[in-house]
Specification:
Layout (H helix, E strand, L loop, with lengths): L1 H41 L7 H25 L7 E3 L2 H14 L4 E7 L6 E3 L1 H17 L5 E12 L13 E10 L6 H4 L19 H11 L3 E7 L3 E9 L10 H5 L6
Parallel strand pairs: 2-4
Antiparallel strand pairs: 1-3, 4-5, 5-7, 6-7
Helix pairs in contact: 1-2, 3-4, 4-6
Bound molecules: adenosine-5'-diphosphate.
C-alpha cells in the first residue's frame, strides 16, 4: 500500500509539473521550431549552416513530441467506459501489429470464446495494449514470440493473497508475454515510475508503463509483472468482470451488496 501511495504521489507530482510548465515550454519550442523552419527555407542545402539548422529543427520537434506526451499523461482523462468484450480491441491491435512488427516476431492471440465483458474505455485499452506490445517488440531485437491472452479468471480469498489490495471476485485477465531480454528485479521495481527508462535518449520517455498503470487503476484493475532475464516478461492485467448476462439485473439487485466483498 505504501508503494502504491508513493506511486500515486509521484504521478500527481508529474501531473502538476507537466500542467504547470509544459504549456509555457511548448510556446518556447514553437518559437524555436518556427524560426528554424523559416531559416531552413531561406538557406540552400549546400550552405554550411543548413545541417546545424536542421539539427535545431529536429531537436525542437522531438521536444514538442515529448511535451505532447507529457500533456496527455498529466491530463487525467476520465475513462469513457462501455460494456466491452476485450476481443475487439485485441483484434484492432493485432491488425496494427501485423503491419508494424518485424516478421521475425511471431504474434499469437489466445482469446477464450466465453470472455466476460468489462466496463472499459476501448481507446484506453488499445493504448495499454499498444504500449505493452511496443515494449515487447523492443525487448526482442533478434525475434521471438509475442502472445496476447484474454480469459476469465476468478480470484478467491486464497488467490488474492498474492495480489495485495485486490478484492476476491470475477475478473478478465489480459496477459502480454514476450520471449525477450527480460529484466532483473532491480529494474522491475521501478518500471511503473514516470520517466524510468533504460532506453537511449530519444528512444524512450519512461512514460509508457506509468500511463498503463494509471489507466488500469482508473478502471479499478490490477497489474503485475513477472520477468526473468534472458527468458522474457509477462504483464498481467486483471479487470473486474461485469456480471454475466444470464444473471437477472433489476433495480433492486443493483443496490444489493455484492457477494464476497
Ligand atoms: P520506455 O519504453 O519509454 O522506456 P516504459 O515506461 O514503457 O518506458 O518502460 C520502462 C522500462 O521498462 C523500459 O525502458 C525497459 O527497461 C523496461 N521494460 C518495459 N517493458 C519491458 C519488456 N517487455 N521487456 C524488458 N524490459 C521492459
Amino acid at each position: 500500500l505504501q508503494r502504491q501511495l508513493a506511486q500515486a504521489q509521484k504521478m500527481e507530482a508529474v501531473g502538476v509539473l507537466a500542467g504547470g510548465i509544459a504549456h509555457d515550454f511548448n510556446n518556447l519550442l514553437q518559437v524555436t521550431l518556427g524560426f528554424s523552419e523559416i531559416l531552413l527555407e531561406e538557406k540552400k542545402e549546400t550552405d554550411p549552416e543548413y545541417r546545424d539548422l536542421q539539427k535545431i529543427f529536429q531537436a525542437a520537434t522531438s521536444g514538442a513530441e515529448l511535451v505532447r506526451q507529457l500533456l496527455t499523461f498529466s491530463r487525467k482523462v476520465e475513462p469513457k467506459t462501455v460494456p466491452l468484450d476485450l476481443t475487439e480491441p485485441i483484434m484492432q491491435i493485432k491488425k496494427f501489429l501485423n503491419r508494424t512488427i518485424p516478421k521475425m516476431i511471431d504474434i499469437r492471440i489466445n482469446v477464450s470464446g466465453d470472455l466476460a465483458e468489462v466496463d472499459a474505455d476501448p481507446t484506453q485499452i488499445e493504448q495499454i495494449l499498444m504500449n505493452l506490445a511496443v515494449n515487447a517488440r523492443d525487448a526482442m531485437p533478434e525475434g521471438g514470440t509475442l502472445t496476447i491472452t484474454a480469459r476469465n479468471e476468478t480470484l478467491d480469498s486464497e488467490c488474492v493473497k498474492c495480489h495485495p489490495g485486490v478484492s476476491p471476485g470475477d475478473y478478465v485477465l489480459l496477459a502480454i508475454t514476450d520471449t525477450g531480454t527480460g529484466m532483473d528485479t532491480g529494474i522491475v521495481e521501478h518500471i511503473f515510475e514516470p520517466f524510468f527508462t533504460t532506453k537511449e535518449i530519444g528512444r524512450g520517455t519512461g512514460l509508457g508503463l506509468a500511463m498503463v498503470y494509471g489507466i488500469v487503476k482508473q478502471h479499478g484493475g490490477h497489474i503485475t509483472c513477472q520477468s526473468d532475464v534472458a527468458q522474457g516478461t509477462t504483464f498481467k492485467i486483471y479487470l473486474p468482470a461485469i456480471r454475466r448476462k444470464t444473471e437477472p439485473v433489476t433495480e433492486s439487485s443493483e443496490e444489493m451488496p455484492a457477494h464476497g466483498t
